[in-house]
Amino acid sequence: MFVCTDKNWVRSSALALAVSALFMAPAILGAAPQAELWPRWEAHTAGSSRTVDHDAWAGFLERYLVTDTPDGVNRVRYGEVSSADRRALQQYISSLEAIPVSELDRPEQLAFWTNLYNAVTVELILDHYPVKSIRDIKISGSMLNRHPWDAELTEVEGVALTLNDIEHRIMRPIWQDPRIHYVVNCASIGCPNLWPEPFRGDTWDAIAEAAARAYVNHPRGVDFSGRRPVLSSIYDWYSDDFGGNIEGVVDHVLRYAEGERARQARRFAEGGHRGRVSYDYDWDINEF
Q: Beta-strand (E) ranges in 127-273?
């Protein structure tokens, strides 16, 4: 058995490992969660007439979400949320946590998870405000990749859940709908807009269509105007949800693109995708 007693060698080896880890960090930081089903949440009650009251969330959005911004990005007046409205938001989240979600039908469940994700995210920002980016909230993850998405922030049917659980272990694998990426909001400018009204079982589909169209037709979502197309990193991180390759992404984009953006996307598709594509995402907080 060999035991090294050379302190300089140990220090050099430790430094080398640290440098190596730093070079590996971008890959770790860039990894996106896969859709991996948590079977426990497949339970539902088909044909259930039970609905969930989201009026408190509607009131919060009406008071604090600004939608008439020059750049078309919906923003939240986090710094102006009153103590009373903060308590009301927390009570709304608590009311959702008390819902026996397994007793809801599939459409009502999808609306439930969407609103819960968005409300918990807003509460997360308020709990750490002021903050420049949600990524600055380092309450979970590995030493090299501290973030908030793996922190247990809510509880449903007695089970603690993270934001990653809701999006990647419940919503994506159960519904397998790429429009989920347009309705969950990560409190960032690069993200699809926080919608100005709650999702409900009978409105989720229509709102998701509108949200997809709004994002695809905004430069932060899709921009084919330059020499090199620039797409949101969402289409890179979650490529599998959009067909698994650039052809699938462009086909998806063409479902929603309008006017000149549609013509540009069609020319790109007809060109055999020979042009290189760049991806971008603005993590600055969506604050007004």
A: 140-142, 145-147, 152-156, 159-162, 222-223, 230-232
